[in-house]
Specification:
It is a single chain. The chain has 175 residues and is mainly α. It is built from six helices and no strands.
Length: 175
């Protein structure tokens, strides 16, 4: 995996994460459980692909050179970000399917908010916003082009000499 191929793969994954995050609803009225489960499936797919890509290289660790190791670290950090976004959306699905009272507040048995679809949609929209932020941060990290320094290259210029005032020691005047 050369660094240019790795960066191209990172850029592609970052674009896909940004596209998915842009589609997440922020308005409670736009929340749909079918779409939520689809979003969870898409994130799981991206997580699976990233994990498989890393796994291919981890099978022969002796053949993985330092620049590729740095790329694999970035990839595994991205999988952690995707997994966190997946966890956030899974919590949203849990809230919506098991009810507000069990997951958010334990003592709402007699509350009018119990299983209120409007409240559930608000909570789901808030989870979408959190997942969107996580995915956008992960995508930004994938786009970061800072790479660890490679092997040092020999200098093409000659040695620099110090200015004459610094290079020659000063003599003290004798009294």
């Amino acid at each position: 995996m050369s660094s240019s191929i790795a960066q191209a793969a990172f850029d592609h994954l970052a674009r896909r994460l940004d596209e998915l995050a842009a589609e997440f609803p922020t308005d409670p009225g736009a929340v749909d459980l079918v779409t939520l489960t689809d979003d969870i499936a898409v994130l799981a797919h991206h997580l699976q692909q990233a994990t498989e890509r890393a796994q291919e290289r981890f099978t022969a660790p002796a053949a993985v050179h330092p620049p590729e190791r740095a790329a694999l670290v970035r990839l595994t950090r991205a999988t952690a970000g995707i997994a966190k976004a997946l966890d956030i959306l899974s919590e949203a699905l849990t809230f919506a399917t098991t009810g507000f009272q069990r997951e958010a507040v334990g003592d709402l048995a007699h509350s009018h908010l119990r299983n209120d679809p409007g409240v559930l949609r608000i909570m789901t929209a808030e989870k979408y916003v959190a997942a969107r932020a996580r995915l956008r941060n992960t995508a930004a990290d994938l786009r970061a082009t800072t790479t660890p320094p490679g092997p040092s290259t020999p200098r093409t210029t000659g040695l620099r000499t110090q200015p004459t005032a610094v290079a020659q020691p000063r003599q003290r005047a004798r009294p």
